[in-house]
Amino acid sequence: MPKSQLTGPYKLLQRLGTEGMAEVWVAKQAEPGKRRVALILINEGVGSKEIIARFEAERQALP
After folding, report:
1. For the chain, which terminal residue's Cβ has fewer other Cβ atoms within 10 angstroms, N or C?
2. Spatial separation of the C-alpha atoms in residues 43 and 35, rounded to whole Å
């Protein structure tokens, strides 16, 4: 995925790493406020309901 690609309100800046089912990127969030975030992108074809629920639970746990 190119660095300049947009994913929703996020502009991907730098890939931090990969694992079996996802990539982790530093991204710049455009809305609701401008800030740098870590963004986990689940690989295509891996998004079962259980995996998506796990990532959603992790997201909810973060401040």
Report:
1. C
2. 24
